[in-house]
Structures are given as structure tokens and as C-alpha cells.
Automatic annotation (TrEMBL):
<dbReference type="Pfam" id="PF04205">
    <property type="entry name" value="FMN_bind"/>
</dbReference>
<feature type="signal peptide">
    <location>
        <begin position="1"/>
        <end position="24"/>
    </location>
</feature>
<feature type="domain" description="FMN-binding">
    <location>
        <begin position="49"/>
        <end position="123"/>
    </location>
</feature>
<protein>
    <submittedName>
        <fullName>FMN-binding domain-containing protein</fullName>
    </submittedName>
</protein>
<dbReference type="GO" id="GO:0010181">
    <property type="term" value="F:FMN binding"/>
</dbReference>
<keyword id="KW-0732">Signal</keyword>
<dbReference type="InterPro" id="IPR007329">
    <property type="entry name" value="FMN-bd"/>
</dbReference>
<dbReference type="GO" id="GO:0016020">
    <property type="term" value="C:membrane"/>
</dbReference>
């Protein structure tokens, strides 16, 4: 083999090695890593209602309030139930406790909001 042929073969090998290196570096493995699925977090909170404590469970997923459930209340059932439903709906819709209390059930509404705020303060 002549010197000229050896030089050409060496250049060809170098180009082949460089091409393989570039293709290996730029090509992905094809597998993508998926982020782990977020887990909802349920926390409880307590607030002072009209008659006694209001206890709620609030479920949050990725910073979004998913659900609010009143688990304990001594407030008047016929009066507080409608207020609780209205306040919970407003909090879920606004994703905030900055909502109005229900007229006629202000103490119950404010106790519920206090309980929700207490629960949200415990979300990690």
C-alpha cells in the first residue's frame, strides 16, 4: 500500500469514527423517563364555627384543591348545611378561601373557612 493510500484510509477511518461518535452522542435511547404520578394529599383542619369546632378534610393535588368535606360540626344542620355547600363550592371554584360568608350563617361560614385555611396550611 502506498503512502497516499494509507493516508486516505486513515482519513476515511477517522471520518467513520467521528460520524459514529456524533450519531451516538445525538441519538437518544428512545426511552423517556416519565415523572412519577402525583399523589393527592388529604389534610384535616379545624375552625371555630357558630356552636363549636368545624372539622374538615381537604384534598389537594399539585396545588389544586380537589375536594373539601365537613367531617364534624355542631352547627345547626338545616342552617349550616346550605352555607357549608355554598362556601365549599365558592372555595373550589376560586381555589381560594377569599370568599364571602353566607348571610344568615356567618358564624358557620367563617368557621368553615377557618378550618379550610388551617388544613391548607398543613399541605406539604
Amino acid at each position: 500500500m502506498s503512502k497516499k493510500q494509507m493516508k486516505g484510509a486513515l482519513i476515511l477511518m477517522m471520518v467513520a469514527v467521528l460520524t459514529m461518535g456524533v450519531l451516538t452522542a445525538c441519538g437518544g435511547s428512545g426511552a423517556t423517563e416519565e415523572a412519577p404520578a402525583a399523589t393527592p394529599q388529604t389534610v384535616s383542619g379545624t375552625g371555630q364555627g357558630y356552636a363549636d369546632d368545624v372539622v374538615v378534610e381537604v384534598t389537594v393535588l399539585d396545588g389544586v384543591i380537589q375536594s373539601i368535606e365537613v367531617v364534624e360540626s355542631a352547627d345547626t344542620p338545616g342552617l349550616s348545611d346550605g352555607a357549608f355547600d355554598a362556601v365549599i363550592e365558592a372555595v373550589l371554584e376560586n381555589q381560594s378561601t377569599d370568599v364571602d360568608a353566607v348571610s344568615g350563617a356567618t358564624g358557620s361560614s367563617e368557621g368553615l373557612l377557618e378550618a379550610i385555611e388551617d388544613a391548607l396550611s398543613k399541605v406539604e
